[in-house]
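Please review the protein record below. Tell me whether the encoded fold seems credible here:
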Amino acid sequence: MKYFHSRNRAILREMISTDFKVRYQGSALGYFWSLLKPLFLFAILYVVFTYIIPLGRGVEHFPVYLLLGIVIWNFFTEATTIGASSVVARGDLIRKISIPRYLVVISSSMSALINLLLSLVVVFVFALFNGITPSVEWLLIIPLILELFIFALGISFFLSAAFVKFRDITYIWEIVLQAGFYASAIIYPLTLVPAEFQKWFFLNPIVQITQDARYAIVTHTSLTIWNSVDSIIATLVPFVIIVGVAVGGGFYFKRRSKYFAEDI
């Protein structure tokens, strides 16, 4: 059993390393694209929503507020999009080598996690340049990242298993992501949403994670589920959804994995 686990860890490390290297292979800037991509998007959105459509007016440290939201959303998009096609992309490996199928999905999510951690370094640097004083609350980003990773991984398990049989699933997911970007208060403060609807936004775990991260790192004026929802039970809803997605996605993946070799 010890050998089995050490073997799986070695395979996982190799898959993560390969995924990360292949993604930027042949690129002149290589790994720097993992930092430049969110920065380019941030620059465009910052100009638009600060000088043309001033949605960020009155938001303390809005540049960092916006960048943090973009970085979180980019990870979720990257992890689930790449995760959806991960099993099919590794079809040859699955057919030739006897490895736990779940390692394929975990490796793609871990590659996206590396990009997230690199991007968060940029966020922290921006925060310091914007005059934000580091505090112990910054450490809250650790459980929030874990929460985000589990949520994205659960969705990736479901999408990857479904994609083996239903190749349209990625197109559907792209539409869901486009809608989710605007429904997750990434580019605008949640305070712009009418008060009676704000609590419903927290049914989306991405909103809960993003707002908590903004509260911990950027500004205490950020609305969170803890200062916006009165019911204790209601505050638990996003966490229940995340656990449900993780367990449900894992169960569906396990049930479908025995058919992967013949369906890919």
